[in-house]
Amino acid sequence: MLLYMSSQKFGNDTTILKKWINENDNKIAIIPNALDAKGEDKIRKNLKEDIELLERIGFNVRIIDLKNYFGKYNELKAELSEYNACCVMGGNVFVLNKAMNLSGFDIFLKKKKNDDGFLYIGYSAGSCVLSENLKQLDIVDEPIKFYDEQSVNYKGLGFIDYIFIPHYKSNYHKIEFINNLVEKCMKENIKYKAIQDGEVLIERIK
Fold it and tell me: Which of 30, 105, 165, 206 could form a disulfide with 194, with the two C-beta atoms 3.0–4.6 Å apart?
């Protein structure tokens, strides 16, 4: 799996994504569920922006709302079977993580982990959820229980062995919390990578 981890949207240079399309195909599933707690207007606005950006890069985009597949993993797997790429949007990492758990999207991604031909694009929360332990991220995101679940799940996908910290040294409304998270990681020797808006981290995992 190729991980394309951005701080904000898809970064300043999308050459790698265009190259991937040329070598693979352009179909991509976009996952907006990190925004579920923000309301429908916010979801529609951000989806419109992201779809336009992805189409400009060259992708053919389809929206997959994980809420439609809660408890229906086999249906989700069937819907995603024709896609070799997904884009997971930003928002609240704990809401996103729970939507992944309830739909089985986390299981789907773990089965794709060893697939060299699968692309995972994530920005902000969409990349944060790739970490093993999400507990430290409650400094930035409120660990809300949005889907009436009994507890917050702090266990992420575990695809990266560090905390992904977006919006570092950027014009971001929660920049004080971002700085506090970086300071905490430094003091407690927690492995992390902090990137600015416009920057992208690329990793190929197996």
Answer: 165
What string of DSSP letters covers 6-41? ESSTT-S--HHHHHHHHHS--EEEEE-GGGGGG-HH
Architecture, CATH, for domain 2-204: 3-Layer(aba) Sandwich (3.40)
The span from the CA of 195 to the CA of 167, in Å, is 6
Find how far residue 92's CA is from the centre of its chain. 10
> What is the reported pLDDT for 151?
83
Alpha-carbon distance of 183 to 167, in angstroms, equals 14
**Is the confidence at residue 149, as pLDDT, over 80?**
no
Residue 150 reports pLDDT greater than 90: no
Strand blocks (E) in the chain = 2-6, 27-31, 60-63, 85-88, 119-123, 163-165, 192-194, 200-204
158 touches 132 (CB < 8 A)? yes
Contact (CB, 8 A) for 6 and 200: yes
Q: Please choose, from the candidates 190, 116, 89, 110, the residue with its C-alpha nearest in 3D space to the C-alpha of residue 158.
A: 110
Share of the chain above pLDDT 70, in %: 100
Report the mean per-residue pLDDT for the chain. Answer: 94
Q: CB neighbours of 41 closer than 8 A, spacing ≥ 6?
A: none
Give the pLDDT confidence score for residue 74 in this predicted structure.
Answer: 97
